[in-house]
Amino acid sequence: MSIPNDAQHPSPLAHAPAATRALLARLHEQSLAQESGFDLRAVPSEQFKAAVSDKFIALDEDKCQFVYQLLRASGARRIVEAGTSYGVSTIYLALAASENAAALGGQPLVVGTEHEEAKADQARAYWAESGTDAVKAIDLRVGDLRETLKTGLGDIDFLLLDIWTPMALPALKLVQPHLRPGAVIVADNPITSAKGYTELFDYVRAPGSGFSSINVPYSNGLEMIVYYPPNK
Length: 232
Ligand SMILES: C[S@@+](CC[C@H](N)C(=O)[O-])C[C@H]1O[C@@H](n2cnc3c(N)ncnc32)[C@H](O)[C@@H]1O
Description:
Elements: H1 18-36, H2 45-52, H3 61-74, E1 78-82, H4 88-104, E2 109-114, H5 117-128, E3 138-142, H6 145-148, E4 156-161, H7 168-175, E5 179-188, H8 198-205, E6 211-216, E7 222-227
Parallel strand pairs: 1-2, 1-4, 2-3, 4-5
Antiparallel strand pairs: 5-7, 6-7
Residues 56-59, 83-89, 113-116, 119, 144-145, 162-164, 167 line the site of S-adenosylmethionine (SAM).
């Protein structure tokens, strides 16, 4: 699925500052240009980390817009992003959390996680030029998420799993105790990465897990999971 934004299909971010929209358009374009130069799935697993250490691999623009709408619909103000890279999707999360907080009260928080320091530095530089104060809600934690997500989360409304698949279940397990009833988890590429997600989906789909899950048919899929903690 690809949603071109035109007069009939306006972006849900049409109200965002022009500088923010221009930056997002530029970064999505850069990310796609990089990806057209190599096939992620053809990279041998032992070379994968090095091959992608300087790549955006940003969440597709149409998926970012859908996630933004989900966040606005659910009123999410406290969000965790597993996999921040150069911080493209993070801007959408920060916009939605800040707009929700302005409408509903509370403080917006987007906890980002990135283990490549150079990417984290560049993400901060992009946020500084984003033209929106919404990015002040971002708490970027640099390092392995298995450490950085251990503390300081509080209640969480939404988790974006845009991470190498072996990290998806560890991220979910760290955030799970903080998820409020009705919290939403979105995981990218459940179709193309089905094998890598085996453990995550076995966990989520286990009877009595409290999770329910559906694939939204974007390109390569987009898993939308809802959590209601099971009665003890
Ligand atoms: C698909 S990219 C994220 C793209 C980003 N969400 C966006 O849309 O711009 C995944 C990122 O996760 C980072 N990553 C992978 N394993 C990690 C780990 N264990 N802890 C923290 N970050 C990790 C990678 O360095 C990579 O930049």
